[in-house]
Amino acid sequence: MTAQAATEMADRHFKAKAADLRRWIDTAEYQTERAGTDEGFRKLAAFSLHQAVETAYACFLLVHTFYFPRSHNIKFLRSLAEDVNTSLVEAWPRESRFDRRRFELLKRAYVEARYSDQYDASAEDLEWLMGRARHLRDRVEELSKARIEDLRVKAGSAG
Predict the structure, then answer these.
(1) Residue 82 near residue 88 (C-beta atoms within 8 A)
(2) Where are the alpha helices (DSSP H) in the chain?
(3) Do 21 and 13 meet the contact criterion of CB atoms below 8 Å apart?
């Protein structure tokens, strides 16, 4: 792939996935606002946050490696993305059991929020997860824009 083609592909991936990511965050915000007393909205918000995080990792991986495995396992995707850029580690604190439990709650949301009567995330959990998802979104956008700019510079110097 030429430097110009790589730049164009990375930019296309970024624009599409960043737009999807903003939509998932917006959807989750709407659902979270109504989650306080409505278990249905809590489940929908958890699922939407899962989708936002999955999309953020897809965006990052596509822009940086031009590859995204067809997986919904955000723990696996997180690991792949963090292997490419270790600064993404800070998006999900791991120091306390409390933080790890909330990430696991989000990971389980892909299936359980839709299909399990037992799944529930508290409004407090959702607010925390929302904050981390926004942080991840911002970091992925920053790193992706820097990557695209780097590719542009290489395409300019190669041409």
Answers:
(1) yes
(2) 3-33, 39-65, 74-84, 97-115, 123-158
(3) no
Number of domains observed in the structure of the chain: 1
Q: What is the pTM of this model?
A: 0.94
Q: Which among 143, 115, 124 has a CA at the least distance from the CA of 18? A: 143
Condensed to tens digits (0 to 9), the pLDDT of residues 91-104 reads: 999 999 999 999 99
Length of the chain in residues, anyone?
Answer: 159
CATH number assigned to the domain comprising residue 16: 1.20.120.330
Q: Which domain holds residue 36?
A: 3-158
CA proximity to 123, closest of 93, 96, 102: 102
pLDDT tens readout for residues 128-148: 999 999 999 999 999 999 999
3-state DSSP assignment of residue 44: helix
Two tokens, residue 65: 């490696």
For 144, half-sphere exposure in the C-beta direction (CA atoms, 13 angstrom radius) is: 28
